[in-house]
Design a protein that fits this description.
single chain, disordered C terminus
Length: about 1400
């Protein structure tokens, strides 16, 4: 208030409101003149008002009034001249008080004197007594230790006394403050280096606080500058080298601690440190340039072979930067060492603009030690130690002095994101912020400190450890785990930005790899895949790119030496798995990329297995990364250079097949590898390939082929699931399909058997992955939709051009095989109840698939057929009375399942089978039974068991030999033999057990079928038989090999059970009409399956017709051999059975139908149709064709294909099939005997003719046609001409649409084709003669065939040759003429009306005579 009052008085005076005299008089009467404080207050008011009056643009009168006021105040002694001169501005001082010019001169002189005057202090030599006293006081101050121990108050009082003594000594002795500061800093440097904590150094810091910070900074700068002698003067003076600035670590540690205490200005000190920022930038630029050159040397091949390049340039530059002791680097490391993080962060951020500071050893080691100090509390509870071991210390790994505790409690955390100091972490929630602060500067260069890197992995592993479930099922939380948000947002970036790149730079370390996997395995598949992806992209960083390329180069060098059977002396090839494993510990991604690139290129498919064996010793993390790479390869989009399907030739791309096989073999080798990622990608891609509607309305020309990724799934099922598939199965392997899983596996296995435990582990892993992801229904639905798309009109129109059938066959067969493998795998990998739980509802299944596929899915989940039903309890009692094994009754749940199935079947039937004369029970029984139910492969089990027993005997013999040598205790071979013996014994026992189970199940099924057979054919009629073929046989026969065999065995079982209502002849008529239509519209797989079905079906008829007694025994009392359908088949008086001749006629007719359908394929122009025909014949040639006429026709077509076909694969296939058909010619039936040879004029010619007959094949020792059969055939032919003419008549009737006559052009073509047949049969006979000659003496010299035959006939060599050639020429002409006549006669006979019509007697006699005479002639033309 007084100040305001005085301001108002002064302003009133200046404005003229009050006169100067009155104002001075008023002020003089107050106490202003007597009190200094009031005078100072008035002087301040005058300064403020005077400044405004003189500086503001006011009138001159106000300035004069202010000057007058000041003069009067000085005159009346209200204010002294000194107060006015000291308070007012220079320009405002009145002249009466002081002249302004003189005042300015005095001020300048004072400033100059204060600036340039140097105080003369007493130095050490001049005042040794004072400095001695100072040293004594400093020593007391730096060693405040008392005995007994003093209290903190006493220590504080002593410290204050000593500091005051030092200050008084400085003033009393006029000692140099800079020298005292330097001495104090030197003592402080020694104290803080002694131990931590450093209580003796704190009093020295308190002493330094008494000095100005600016003076302290100057002293430190002076100490850190380089000081050398003065440069010499003179001509002969040599230049003195510039001394290096001091860079003592302890010195910088003391300076850093003073900076953290706020005693030294960091910015001022930094500007004086060496080197300059420009020099650091230049060094970093040179290092980067040399790094690029070194990287170029690794990635590029120098074809010129220049040796002028310095290969060690980068290494020298890197080591120089790493070991640089620059002052700025030292100061940064010291700031980190004293935990002054805010200052250290400031310095590091500045250095990062110039270079990579973490490349320097001192900065990097300081950051590493700080990070270890931060995480140490979390590691201590988990560290295991022996009783005699102490707690792990916090000492530096590199032996440097660290004083991290200096920063504790220095400043509480505030809003600043950068803390003043880092704190030790005691809870996981505090971990991530602290780690981010340090790792932001350290990056991934902590690789030099493996102890820290391992500790970080362990700490993060503890942080993400999954909570263990308690006894009540709840997840217990230890409170020491990361929240989900922090896990994804902060933890994962640390892993892929810092830890994994650091691990890539570490030399091969197996322990580190295990620690890394202990953390990674706790993450989800998605998290791991994201981490691997980011790790892969980080390889472009400094040093990482170099390591990446070096690893790829090393991998290529190792893989070049990989072979399937490496010799032990070749250490690289034989131990390639160890070398690959060593590389994969640190850098698995480049190793796997090189390997996968070789696999996808497909330079040698035989190297896939050796490549998989190279991963035998790899860690679990490497296997998991391999799974990620495989999933990524499967997820790559289709490009022009990377397609799934070659549209030109309709084949799978080699990279896809190689990738699929490698994936299957790899997961079989490493079943513990997670399959979730790969299966998810495969399922998503298969499901995404659903047909898309065309926007233009036109069909799509190119098939995307996304679903072809199913090849990977098929290989997983094959290798992991143990579902081995054989392309061309032998009869023994087909027979084993009726057995259990072990018999199937034993029939297709070869070579060394794998470990059963590993096999079961791999199967369980695959099954669990598919089930846990819920992929069963998804895969079934996707495959069903693609199956329907392949069979749609849209797909057919889009691919109706050349190769369309081949493409359809490839896609359809692949889809079907994948479906079969998946279903079979699920059925074998779990029990029936588990499989049933995986099934969707029956209605959903039947809506997805056609009946054959739907029942295939459902069949494995239904109750065993041998269990029977609850309603059959009375029948079971009767069976017990008759000493027949009763069937087990079904439960209520099973009966309910049966009722649901019947309801769904009725719902999805186009027409009820009851309307056709079949019962629904018969329909469901047919579909629910499998091949294992109706057929027992006893021979297959016996052969497999015999093979196992032989192997056991062989092993016993080898073991006995080794035991006799008494050098077997530590022999690896002996141990392997023992292990193999145990395996064989276990397999033998399990195979016997499986055989007994199969036998018991088979007996139960037969017992129930025997009970229910009378209810199957409710209305025996041709319609019922046709419905049986069309609704049951046709849909199932082409499903699989097992289903084809099931159909054959089921028909035989109906005959064996003497099923009433089933007629064999009508059944064969139906299926030969219906099923033969599928020959032209089937795929390769279906052609082979149909060939197996045809072979088995025709084999039964062939076995019946070969021996009449066999047929009579089979026919006796069997209603299946009735000629007609009877309402009351029990009436033997009206029942007529099929005769033996009927079977012969029917056999010829049925083969004629099949031949007619097959010939269309053989004569087709489409590659696929011809190949399918050849595939079918390759499977059925043993039992079809066996009628000589059709066999010759088929052989002629195949030979024609061989001669005219341009495709090399078809030519080769046809040629091999020709050999196969000719080798089966001894089984041909309905042969016509050749005419007897005319006798020659002399005995020599007769002997030559006999030789010719033998060579031409008149005497066929391989013929197995019995005399009774020939007699039966001749008698049947004498009674009815239809026995010989019926097959061609039937064939031509069907070809010409009824009973019309065949055109003459067709007859000519047929006769011409038949006339050419002897040429090929000649080759077959020569082959047979060569086989006969094998039994001759091996020492006999090789001579011409004709010469040897003539010697046997005891004729001369030359005459025999000439005679043989003449006879052959005559026979060829005679054969051609006879064949033409015979063909014309056969064509005339076949073109006639049926036998029931009346014929002209003359024509009948002529035909009979011609037939009797042609028996030998036609046989002569075809051997």
């Amino acid at each position: 208030d007084l100040e305001t009052f005085l301001e108002e008085v002064v302003w009133a005076t200046l404005r003229g409101e009050v006169s100067v005299a009155k104002a001075v008089e008023f002020l003089s009467q107050t106490q202003l003149s007597s009190k200094d404080s009031l005078q100072k207050l008035l002087a301040d008011v005058l300064w403020l008002v005077g400044f405004c009056a003189t500086e503001a643009p006011s009138s001159r009168e106000m300035r004069e009034e202010f000057s007058s006021l000041c003069s009067q105040l000085e005159k009346e002694a209200v204010l002294s001249k000194v107060a006015l001169a000291a308070s007012l501005e220079t320009e405002s001082v009145p002249p009466s008080v002081c002249q302004v010019a003189q005042l300015r001169k005095k001020q300048n002189q004072a400033k100059t004197k204060a600036r340039y005057t140097i105080t003369r202090f007493n130095l050490l030599r001049e005042h040794s007594e004072g400095y001695s006293r100072l040293l004594y006081l400093l020593d007391r101050l730096s060693s405040l230790e008392f005995e007994p121990k003093a209290s903190p108050e006493q220590v504080g009082q002593s410290k204050e006394v000593l500091i005051e003594d030092v200050i008084r000594l400085i003033g009393f002795s006029n000692l140099c403050p800079n020298r005292i500061i330097a001495m104090t800093i030197d003592i402080y440097e020694r104290r803080i280096a002694e131990a931590e904590p450093c209580p003796l150094a704190e009093p020295l810091v308190d002493l330094l606080r008494r000095f100005p910070a600016k003076r302290l900074t100057k002293v430190v700068v002076f100490q850190l500058l380089a000081h050398g002698p003065a440069p010499p003067v003179g001509k002969d003076a040599k230049p003195v080298p510039t001394p290096a600035p001091p860079s003592r670590p302890s010195q910088f540690l003391a300076v850093a601690s003073l900076i953290s205490a706020g005693l030294i200005d960091l910015d001022v000190l930094w500007s004086y440190l060496d080197p300059s920022d420009a020099a650091i930038t230049q060094v970093a630029s040179d290092l980067s340039t040399k790094y690029e050159d070194e990287l170029s040397n690794v990635t590029k091949i120098d074809l010129a072979g220049s040796s002028a390049k310095d290969t060690e340039a980068f290494n020298r530059a890197y080591q120089a930067f790493n070991q640089a002791t620059h002052q700025k680097f030292r100061l940064a490391a010291a700031l980190i060492s004293v935990n002054d993080w805010r200052s250290a962060n400031k310095v590091l951020l500045h250095l990062r603009t110039l270079c990579k500071p973490c490349l320097n050893h001192y900065i990097r080691s300081a950051l590493c030690d700080l990070l270890k100090w931060v995480i140490q509390p979390l590691l201590r509870p988990g560290q295991l130690r022996l009783p005699h071991q102490g707690k792990p210390t916090l000492e530096s790994t590199f032996g440097c002095t660290r004083r991290f505790s200096f920063g504790l409690g220095r400043e509480p955390p505030g809003d600043d994101p950068v803390p003043a100091a880092l704190q030790p972490v005691t809870e996981v929630s505090q971990l991530l912020p602290q780690l981010k602060q340090v790792l932001e500067h350290l990056e991934y260069f902590m690789y030099t400190d493996v102890h820290l890197l391992t500790s970080l992995w362990k700490v993060l592993g503890l942080a993400v450890k999954r909570p263990e479930k308690t006894t009540n099922g709840a997840s217990g939380s230890s409170g020491n785990t990361l929240p989900a948000g922090e896990l994804d947002g902060g933890f994962l970036p640390i892993v892929y930005r810092n830890l994994l790149p650091a691990a890539s730079l570490v030399p091969h370390n197996a322990h580190l790899s295990d620690v890394m996997w202990s953390l990674m395995q706790q993450l989800s598949v998605f998290q791991r895949s994201m981490i691997y992806s980011c790790w892969e992209t980080s390889y472009g960083g400094f040093l990482l790119k170099y390591v990446f390329e070096k690893t790829k180069l090393a991998t290529k060098q190792i893989l070049k030496r990989v072979v399937s059977n490496a010799e032990k002396r070749d250490l690289v090839a034989h131990q390639s798995n160890f070398h690959i494993c060593k590389l994969c510990h640190s850098n698995p991604i480049p190793v796997i990329e090189v390997m996968m690139k070789d696999v996808e290129i497909g330079f040698n498919v035989n190297m896939i297995l050796p490549y998989v064996e190279c991963t035998n010793r790899c860690s679990e993390m490497t296997a998991d990364i391999m799974g990620y790479v495989l999933a990524r390869s499967c997820a790559r989009p289709v490009t022009e250079t990377r397609v799934f399907l070659n549209q030109a030739d309709a084949t799978l791309s080699p990279w896809l097949t190689n990738l699929a096989e490698f994936a299957g073999r790899f997961y079989k080798k490493h079943p513990q590898t997670d399959l979730v990622g790969l299966l998810s990608v495969i399922t998503k891609r298969i499901n995404s390939d659903a047909p898309e509607p065309s926007t233009t309305g036109l069909p799509q020309k190119n098939y995307k082929g996304e679903s072809l990724i199913r090849v990977v799934l098929e290989n997983l099922l094959e290798f992991m699931g143990g579902h081995v598939t054989v392309r061309d199965m032998t009869p023994e392997q087909l027979l084993a399909l009726a057995g259990g899983p072990r018999l199937k596996a034993e029939s297709v296995s070869y070579g060394k058997r794998e470990d059963q435990t590993r096999k079961e582990k791999a199967r369980k892993a695959l099954f669990d992955s598919i089930v846990d992801l819920g992929l069963v229904s998804v895969l079934w639905y996707s495959l069903s939709q693609q199956r329907l798309h392949f069979l749609s009109e849209e797909f057919s129109e889009a691919h109706s051009g050349g190769g369309g059938l081949k493409l359809l066959g490839l896609l359809f067969d692949g889809n079907h095989d994948c479906f079969l493998k998946l279903t079979e795998f699920l059925a074998q990998a779990c029990n029936r109840d588990k499989y049933t739980s995986l099934l969707p509802s029956f209605q959903e299944i039947f809506s997805m698939f056609e009946p054959a596929m739907a029942f295939l899915v459902v069949r494995h989940g239904l109750l065993p057929y041998g269990r029977g039903t609850a309603a059959s309890a009375s029948a079971q009692k009767a069976a017990i009375a008759e000493k027949v094994k009763p069937t087990m009754a079904a439960t209520e749940a099973e009966l309910e399942t049966q009722q649901k199935l019947e309801m769904v079947v009725r719902l999805y039937q186009a027409q009820p089978v009851e309307d056709e004369g079949l019962s629904l029970q018969f329909y469901i029984t047919f579909w629910r039974l499998s091949l294992q139910d109706i057929f027992m492969p006893t021979d297959g089990y016996d052969k497999a068991i015999a093979g196992i027993q032989a192997g056991q005997k062989q092993i016993e013999v080898q073991r006995f030999k080794m035991e006799r040598d008494r050098d077997y205790a530590h022999s690896r071979e002996y141990k392997n033999l023992k292990k193999e013996g145990v395996r064989l014994k276990d397999l033998h026992d399990k195979l016997k057990e499986e055989q007994l189970q199969q036998k018991l199940n088979h007996e139960k099924v037969l017992a129930r079928l025997e009970q229910e057979k009378t209810t199957w054919f409710t209305k025996p009629s041709p319609q019922a038989t046709a419905a049986f073929v069309s609704e049951m046989i046709c849909p199932r026969v082409l499903t699989s090999y097992a289903d084809a065999l099931f159909c054959c065995r089921y028909v035989r079982l109906l005959i064996k059970l003497k099923t009433p209502g089933f007629q064999l002849l009508d059944f064969y008529n139906c299926w030969t009409i219906m099923l033969t239509q599928n020959i032209r519209c089937c795929s390769e797989r279906e052609a082979q399956i149909f060939g197996v079905f045809l072979r088995e079906m025709m084999a039964y008829v062939y076995s019946l017709r070969r021996n009449e007694k066999t047929y009579e025994a089979e026919m006796k009392g069997n209603p299946c051999f009735h000629r007609n359908y009877y309402e009351d088949p029990s009436n033997e008086a009206v029942v007529e059975y099929a005769k033996y001749t009927d079977i012969i006629k029917g056999h010829a007719k049925w083969e004629g139908r099949i031949y007619k359908a097959l010939r269309q394929n053989l004569d087709s122009e489409d590659w696929m149709e011809k190949r399918n025909a050849l595939l079918l014949l390759s499977q059925s040639c043993e039992t079809f064709p066996v009628v000589e006429k059709y066999a010759k026709g088929v052989l002629s077509c195949v030979e024609n294909m061989r001669d005219k076909e341009e495709m090399s694969d078809l030519k080769t296939f046809a040629n091999s099939l020709i050999v196969k058909l000719k080798s089966c010619s001894h089984n041909w039936v309905d042969k016509v005997e050749p005419p007897p040879a005319e006798k020659g004029k002399d005995d020599k010619a007769s002997s030559k003719d006999e030789v010719r007959k033998v060579s031409m094949g008149f005497k066929n020792p391989l013929s197995v046609v019995s005399t009774q059969e020939k007699t039966a055939q001749s008698k049947a032919a004498a009674k009815d001409v239809k026995a010989q003419a019926a097959p061609p008549a039937e064939s031509k009737k069907e070809a010409n649409g009824g009973g019309e006559k065949r055109p003459r052009e067709e007859a000519k073509t047929s006769s011409t084709a038949d006339a050419k047949e002897p040429k090929h049969h000649k080759d077959a006979k020569e082959a047979k003669e060569k086989e006969k000659s094998k039994d001759r003496d091996r020492a006999e010299p090789k001579v011409a065939k004709e010469v040897r035959e003539v010697k046997e006939s005891r004729g001369s060599e030359k005459d025999a040759k000439r005679a043989t050639e003449r006879v052959r020429e005559k026979d060829r002409d005679r054969a051609k003429t006879a064949e033409k006549d015979a063909d014309w006669k056969r064509s005339a006979g076949t073109a006639s009306v049926p036998a029931t019509a009346s014929l002209d007697e003359r024509a009948e006699k002529r035909r009979r005579s011609e037939r009797d005479n042609d028996v030998i002639i036609t046989g002569h033309t075809t051997r």
